[in-house]
Amino acid sequence: MENDSEDLSENFSTCPVCYVKFDDEENKPKILSCGHTTCLQCLKKIYRNGLVSCPCCRHCDRCDQGVEKLPTSQQVLHIIKLTEKLRHRQCPQLTTLSKTLEVESLVKELLDNYSTDDDAFFEQLRKIIRFIVNDPTRCLDPVWKLQDILQDNTMAVSKFHQTIAVYVGEMKQQHLDYLISDVQARWFLSDNTQRPNLLDFLHKLTNEGRNEQLTAKVMDVVEGFVFCADTADELIDSCIEIQKKILSDGWTCDLFSHWLFHLAQTIQTQPEQRLALAAMKLLRHLCYLFAVKKAASNNYYHNASEFNDLVFLHYKKIYTFIDQEWQLFGHAIAGFVTYVMECQSAGNDNIHIAAVKERLAFLGVFLKYGEMCMDEIAATSVWFCLMDRTISDLDPTICFEWFAKIAEMSMMHPKAIQCIFHQHILKLDPRQMVNQTAVFMDCFERFFQAVHCAEGDTFTEDVIDPRPGLQFLLKIVQYAELTIAHRAFKLVKETVIYLGPRLLSPRVDVDSDVLGSLLDRFRDEYFSNRMQREDLVQSDEEEINLMDGLAEFLEREDISNSFDNMEEDEEFSTGIFPVTPAPQRFDIANSIFLLTVMKRGRLLGQIHIKPSSRFASAKFVQDLGTFCYDHPRKIGRRIAKSTKDTFVSLKMTNAMFQPVVPDMLNYRIWLDSDNYAQKACQVGITGIEAGAGRSESRVKGWQFVFFLHDMVPGAYKSKKSLLFGDVVQGIDVVKSLSCSNLLTSHFSDGLRLILESVN
After folding, report:
1. Could you report the per-residue pLDDT of 403-457, keeping only the tens digit for each?
2. What backbone torsions phi and psi does residue 504 show, to the nearest 5 degrees?
3. Each residue's pLDDT tens digit, 717-754
4. 359: number of Cβ within 10 Å
5. At a CB cut-off of 8 Å and minimum separation 6, what does 244 contact?
6. Which residues pair with 701 in a beta bridge?
7. Could you tell me if residue 210 is left (phi over 0), alpha (psi between -120 and 50 degrees) or otherwise beta?
8. If residue 416 lies in a helix (H) or strand (E), which one and from where to where?
């Protein structure tokens, strides 16, 4: 055996041309591109015009700088030194070196005789690998480095890795340690295009090996890749997916316990962004595996439903345990705040959005399965991260979606719901949320109902004043797109119906300016759709019907009717907003009413009305004057009826003022009076009946009727109207309103009426 080794070393230590022994001076072993080795002196003899031809295979190399610059074979020189030591009995490792050279010789023969695209190449490769794994002294390095030749062919590299992985179960520990350490080294030396192949190989390694020690090592190695600063963000997810697969395939209780403790500690220490997210993702998957594995180990379930119940039960156990042991929910909130405070911009928007969603998902599973209830501090912190420190344009949308879901699933403390609703949601401006209207409406609706209602439609006693929420909802109707406006309108209507008595209570003030301006948003759509009504399909017809209902509702038709369920014997001096019995500055004898007429935001003029002392109810005039004194009220938007140059009837309604004074409560009083208005420049008043069909119907509103000429026998007569007063100035404004082209629809195009009283 020793003689064979010496013969083998002799073949490598002499020049194949002159048979002179290589040395490190005159006869240096020079390597040509073809792989053959020749001494320096022989190459000098055949060097011509910058070219040298290999004496073994005749392959030509260009050597412009001379043959001295060709690479020297350090391996050959090393063999020579080892041979010398062996002769002096100082180095018995030459046998191992011989085996390494033997493997290299086999690999070289493989490359010389087979194409990497042929199946025969991999068949011969398997034989070489089998030859290596049978002897732990044989080195795997020459075979493993074949991937450097195949690296441009992704399919070939994958097949090469699979070929090696098949023999993992037969490999000795030295071979496995070599593969893992070399993969680590290659990761730090490779670019991001080659790294996915290395991850895939590690997964194949653990999948074929089925070795707890190997699995633990590979998990640690992959985590090291996540810690690597130059690992691309998209590769982080690949690393996590590989870890998930390894955990699923190599599940053991010891592995679970080790990684649960490790991941919990990682989250507690508040590491950098990528490490925190990786730990959260892996911890969620670990809990999933725990729940599924534990449920599967129970033999008492009979169907999928029972199995799912068991999974849910184990979910609750593990998440409850984790939060009790490590308080990870609070640490996750703190980490979220730290992240947004340190992050100046989104950078890669997709990566930021994915990071935000992962953090919210992590919080969500603790709330859902840990049976937790988010308090005010936690809820405010999440809102701060997404709304007050917005990094991406999509952050508000994600915020609304998440909070809507949390509120729907009752995972927030009632005080937290009220805090978010009143301190944050109602502080937003609907006009600045054009891109989030749908998701915002979902969120608003959840919180609005949660704050204001208990058991669906009942108000609780400790509810915060609903007025701000209702006004904000009306702003959504005004500024949102049509579909969202319809949703908001339905919620407005439900709220008014459910809260009628509360809205009539003295402490609730529904802003008439907001209510009175809502029709501006819908006028153009209403006109265009109304004219095309005959051509509409069924779905559009339903939409127009909804718009009609909206119009009537905002015109106070429906609001008043919704109050009919109140106690009949309950008296209100002036309706929703009672007049405070403070010192009254309005004086019937010395004051006048100013009716300001606007059209599409343009002032048409003012009509000065002097109230008549002969009007049937001095209390009504006094209450109306006090209501309008120093507070101009939007009192109407509609021409009820008109005849050109004869009379104009204006509908005058305000939700905060309803003339239900005792001596005008009976609608018959309006019909039986003889004091009618019928002279030019007189102003009549006509009651609008509420609850038609009753024996004693009350008045829910009124109309002003302005006469431009005396009513003569045979002329068109308006409805009988009680004399309210006289127009002392502005009759030309009344004439401009009597044009028939203003009466093309239920609306009076852009009309707005504002009533005030002055001394």
Report:
1. 988 988 888 888 898 889 888 988 888 777 655 678 888 888 888 777 765 433 3
2. -85, -10
3. 556 778 889 999 988 888 888 764 444 333 455 677 88
4. 22
5. 282, 285
6. 688
7. left
8. helix 414-423
